[in-house]
Design a protein that fits this description.
2 domains, 13 helices
Length: 398
């Protein structure tokens, strides 16, 4: 394992670990959990701004639901199941059937559409042990899963809306561009040929309307519908498939989703499946490798290390604690380093731990109400404390 592998970076930065007692599972450490939450909250804010409402669905659902949706046949032995006979329950491999249940719980009018739902859905799949690879391939993961239930005439605008959001999110994370694939019907699929013809035509038209020119990927669609796949290129030149848009006419039929149209008829909605990141675990791995562990300031799990020049000096120590409190007020992730080590050693350790900003406070800073701010590979700059807090808080927004 080389130093650019996300597992080595995760170990060096004390972000997460895995062990034999939880094969394919992740133990997130405090720093790793902080990073995970920043990624999650970034998507949460973007989804809310795009009109999605967050939901939560059960982890354990009856086998009968997974059989009706088609996931039981699709995933087979990859589903973790419990019980016998009619009481077999299964851990969800994905969230879409649960979102259909929420849609179905009340009578929907055409005026209610589109209905946009999203969830950070914890999923489990019994992947073969040989396929497991750190955060890239796990048995337990969280998807930023979203679904839109809409009329046919709303499909193009909904796909375009999502693509605009997706492009903005990728740019925030350091991926200014992406390529797109258009995946058509696979050999093993659900639904009629007529339904697939219609779904593929609708999604192709929506892609064109969104200004996309996807390359064709025959036979690589989901079992219930065609999809657009968004591929990022990292700084090593590697391609990573992350976001997806899938157009589905099958699950609404299988799970009896419907709305009342303008002529008072019961009509099946179009279901659009969305994900910006796919698996959050996998996206964190991509981020770590793309940035080599030197995450941008807004994304770093610990953003600022504050250190008294002389930890034994009571005044400097108290001022350092005050600086941490001032930085933490606007939400900056600041930590205190008052170890009895020489200051250069603490600076080196902070940057080795992925902390992008080091703030030193000595007798001069204490007397003047200032701080010495040092960024990665840059000389220190003296700033009034209030100015430093304001500047760093502004920089913390992607």
């Amino acid at each position: 394992m080389d130093d650019s592998d996300h597992r080595a970076i995760g170990n060096r930065l004390d972000l997460f670990h895995q062990q034999e007692e939880g094969p394919g599972m992740v133990f997130w450490h405090p720093r790793g959990t902080a990073l995970y939450r920043v990624v999650e909250e970034t998507i949460r804010r973007r989804m809310a701004a795009a009109g999605f409402r967050e939901v939560r669905t059960p982890q354990l659902l009856s086998r009968s639901l997974w059989e009706r949706s088609g996931h039981w046949a699709k995933f087979g032995d990859a589903i973790f199941a419990f019980g016998e006979g009619e009481r077999v329950m299964a851990l969800k491999p994905m969230s879409c059937p649960g979102h259909v249940q929420i849609f179905n719980k009340r009578v929907r009018s055409h005026r209610d559409l589109p209905v946009r739902l999203c969830e950070f859905g914890a999923c489990h799949r019994n992947e073969p042990s040989g396929a497991l690879q750190g955060l890239m391939r796990t048995r337990a993961f969280v998807q930023d899963d979203a679904h839109i239930f809409c009329r046919e005439d709303q499909v193009e605008e909904e796909v375009a809306r999502f693509c605009r959001m997706l492009a903005a999110v990728y740019a925030d994370f350091g991926f200014p561009g992406f390529s797109v694939g258009f995946s058509t019907r696979p050999a093993l699929r659900a639904g009629s040929e007529e339904a697939w013809d219609k779904a593929e035509a609708m999604l192709a038209a929506a892609a064109r309307a969104a200004g996309l020119s996807p390359r064709l990927q025959p036979g690589e669609g989901a079992f219930y519908g065609p999809k657009l796949e968004f591929i990022l290129k990292d700084r090593h030149g590697r391609d990573w498939q992350c976001g997806t848009v899938q157009l589905d006419l099958v699950l609404p039929e299988r799970l009896d989703a419907e709305y009342v149209d303008s002529e008072n008829r019961r009509v099946r909605p179009v279901m659009i499946h969305h994900a910006v990141l796919g698996s959050i675990e996998r996206f964190v791995a991509i981020l770590l490798e793309h940035h080599g562990g030197a995450l941008p300031f807004w994304l770093a799990p610990e953003q600022v290390a504050v250190a008294p020049v002389d930890p034994a000096d009571a005044g400097q120590a108290a001022y350092a604690r005050h600086v941490v409190a001032e930085l933490s007020g606007p939400g900056l992730r600041a930590v205190l380093d008052d170890r009895p080590e020489r200051l250069p050693r603490r600076i080196v350790d902070a940057h080795a731990n992925g902390i992008p900003v080091f703030v030193a406070v000595g007798a001069r800073e204490l007397g003047a109400g200032t701080v010495s701010v040092r960024r990665r590979n840059a000389a220190p700059v003296a700033l009034p404390l209030a100015r430093a807090v304001a500047d760093l808080a502004a920089e913390a927004r992607p």
